[in-house]
Amino acid sequence: MLIDSHCHLNYPGLREDVSGVLGRAREAGIGGFLGISTKRHEWDEVIGLADAHADIWATIGIHPHEADHHPDTDTAMLVDAAAPPRVIGIGETGLDYYYDKSDRERQRASFRAHITAARTTGLPIIVHTRDAEADTLDLLREAGEGTLHGVIHCFTASQAFAEAALELGFYISISGIVTFKNARDLQASAATIPANRLLVETDAPFLAPVPMRGKTCEPAFVAHTARFLAGLRNDEEKALHATTTENFFTLFRKAQPAA
Ligand SMILES: [Zn+2]
Ligand SMILES: [Zn+2]
Question: What kind and span of H or E run contains 161?
Fold first, then answer.
């Protein structure tokens, strides 16, 4: 069994046929899906999907792109929204200085509110970071060692950043980007992540892995990423499935495996 630790089942491209998408994924051996929120008005829908399916869980959060549209984001609101039983993480949050879709100061304020909410609830934080390595690490370190748990999702940062994140106790999640021909640096880093800190994800409907590039990405495709990653790490595919699944439930303690 394999888990897609980061997908957006409510986004156009997947939402029109969620039962088909889930059916194809389950057929491919995907036994769990973490549905990630990016803006306030999706929270109810993302939680609703998790309520309706024993193998789907939810997170609540505001994506860094959306920080400008959510100037009132605060810790109390996030803590409150994270109370339902199927909500197992806080995010995605973080910093994106590549697209700069929101003011950087607003991104940092929103990220801080999420970090405090994660510490308050004890839930792991899902961190998105792009072209913002130094500030991301500063804010995570500010929280204090050992008090914050989480994952760097869709990892594409430097080897030095990976090492710093691992040092802070974070997990690292690898997406389909690792299968791209030009992703040599990422492939090199992905081969060195300790097995007990590794997760896999699709970030569907985005970033379909080879050999599905160009298609709408579905959670079923995480199996291609896992196969490629196992090859890269000289690992048995089955062992990588088992380890990443175990890691998922170790990090997201509030989740219970579907019967
Ligand atoms: Zn992201
Ligand atoms: Zn995402």
Answer: helix 159-167
Burial-class residue 16 by CB neighbours within 10 Å (0-12, 13-18, 19+). Answer: exposed
Tell me the pLDDT tens digit for each residue of 148-181.
999 999 999 999 999 999 999 999 999 999 999 9
Give distance in angstroms: CA of 144 to centre of ligand 2: 25
Q: Give the integer Cα–Cα distance in Å for 20 and 105.
A: 41
Do the beta carbons of residue 44 and residue 13 sit within 8 Å?
Answer: no
Residue 193 C-alpha to ligand 1 middle, in angstroms?
Answer: 20
3-state helix, strand and coil shares in percent for the chain, rounded to the nearest 5: 45, 15, 35
Contact 225, 7 (CB under 8 A): no
Give distance in angstroms: CA of 92 to centre of ligand 1.
Answer: 6
Ligand nearest 204 Cα, by number?
2
SS3 215: coil
Query: Measured in angstroms, how far is the CA atom of residue 61 from the centroid of ligand 1?
Result: 11
Which residues, at least 6 apart from 86, have a Cβ–Cβ distance to it below 8 Å? 47, 50, 51, 56, 57, 58
Q: How far is the CA of 198 from the centre of ligand 1 (A)?
A: 17
- pLDDT digit string, tens, across residues 98-114: 999 999 999 999 999 99
In tens, the pLDDT along 192-226 reads 999 999 999 999 999 999 999 999 999 999 999 99
The pTM score is: 0.97
Whether residue 92 is preceded by a cis peptide bond, meaning omega within 30 degrees of 0, is: yes
